Amino acid sequence: MSGIATMWIRDGVLVDRMHINPVAFAFAALSFALADTPTPAVEELIQFAFAKSGYSFAEKLQLYNHEVAKIVADVHAAARYYNQLATAAAQACQPFPGAVELLAELKSRGVHSFITSAVEQELMDMWSESSDGQPLTQQLDEVLGRRTDFSKGRDHFAYVHTKYKPERIYLIADAPAEIGMGRQFAEEFSIIAIGFGNVIDQAKVAQGYDIVRKSWLDLDVKGDALPSYQSIASSLRDNLRLDDLHLPDESQIVKNLTVAGADHVVSGSGSELMSELSRFFKHQLKPDS
Prior knowledge:
The protein is α/β, with parallel strands linked by helices.
C-alpha cells in the first residue's frame, strides 16, 4: 500500500476541537477590537468563524474586516494571541475516539499519512512533540504546517506527491472550503476528497465557550497587552446566547460537504466517524480497489 497517502486536517478531524477554535477566534478578535468601532456580539463572531472553517485565524479575521466591518487593525498581533489562547484551551481536547487506532492500522498496511494544517510549522512542531500530539504523530510520516512559501493546499499536496509518489491521495477534511481545495487539485495530484461530517450542537459550543473563557481569563497577558480587555471583560463573563447561533444538522453538513465536491462523506459524532472511516478504508485498500 505504499502507493497510497492520506492527508488529514488536525483540528476537527483528528482532534475534537472545533467547538474550541471558533470561540477562541471570537475572544481574540474582541480582545484586539478597535476602540472606535461598534463591537460585534461574541455569537456573531463565533458564527462567522464556523462559516469560514478551513481558513487560518488571520485569514478569517481579514475576511471579517473586509466582508463585515473592520474591527481589528493589527491582525498579526491578534493572530499571535489567538495561537496562545487556542493552544491553552485545546489542552482540554482529545483525539476523536478511534483516530489513533485507525492511523496505526493504515501505517501497518504501508499507507503514508500526514497532517496538513494552516497553523504555523513551529506551533505544529511543538504540538507534535507534546504529550497531546504524540499519540497521533507517532502514526504519521510528517506534520505539515505553514511556513514561508509553503502552505496548506497545493504546496502540501505537491510536496507529498513529489516526495512519496503516491498513486492516490485521500484528503480527509471537515470544512467545505478544504474539500473544495482538494477538488481543485484532484486531477493534478490524484486526490480523493473525504468529507468528515462532525455534528456540533449548541451544547458542544457552550462547552467550548466555558473552556475558552477560562483560558482567556487565566492567560497572563491582560491589561495593556490586550487593547480591548477592560471594555469586553464583563460581557465575556456573561452566558453565551445559544439561540443566536445557527448550527447545521447532520443532513445539512453532509449536503454542504457533498456540494463542495466530497467523493465520500462520513457523518455522525464521536466514535461513529472513525468507525465509518475505518470501514471505508478497508474497502478502498483491498488489493483489487
